[in-house]
Amino acid sequence: MAARADLATSGGATAGSVAALTIPRQHGAWSVLLLGYALGVGALGALNGATALFLALMVAGFLARHTIATWLRLPQGDGRRRTLAAWAVGYVVVAASALSALVLVYDRWLTLPLGALLLLFAAVSAVLEWRRKNRTAWGEWVNILGLSVVAPAAAYVGSGAVNWGTLGLWALAAVFFTASVFHVRYLVRRRSSAGGPLAERLRAGASSLMYHGLGLGLIVGLAVAGIVPFGAALAMAPTIVKAVWVVRHRQSGPLSIRRLGYSELAHSLAFVLLAVAAYRVGPGA
Fold this sequence. Notes:
about 280 residues; 15 helices
């Protein structure tokens, strides 16, 4: 709501207020972006100069995408458009410089198609946002799926290698992070059903339970094929238990969005730590 209020005010904007408009307030997206980076670096990559550059590329690109989307939403006569355009150019320059260094200095040429894939997801997400469909289940799923590309990209940048294990890591990150879309929507969008009898809760939570189950089956299958370690499936255990528990138990009382956000962050942190441990300790792909 605060962001919309900012967009509705066209005059008297300070440099600080315009700069604040370039920072996304999507806490879920930030957590997927940064935790996906940590997963990729921790599981198959390494902390080095290349991954530091990739972090700059990733954050600058994310800020540029948000700034451009904000610029497009402002009316033509809004004086902040020029300042926002300057911020967007600055972010793009930082991202392009980091990308150039990764390719020319560190020989990470595959960053180019990976970056193109991220741009494709960002463009689709921006179109959905422009059409006001970014809050739909499809819009949220596409957005998080695109952000999950950060995990295999960080793994490649940190190691310089791409193999089936890199793709397996993307599958793991994509399954885990996109599953939260169905879990959160069950709690927030179907609040009345979450407080109803078990049969009603099962109907409302069927998509969440099915998605979590299919995702776990996929990761187990990849583990059997030797593409991900078996510990990766165990890393999914807390979020599977969480999804089943919230449907099995009647949710009563007012829902705290802040508490839900902290809970999702805690589960994401646990997943990343368990997954990284599985890759570092157990047999990898």
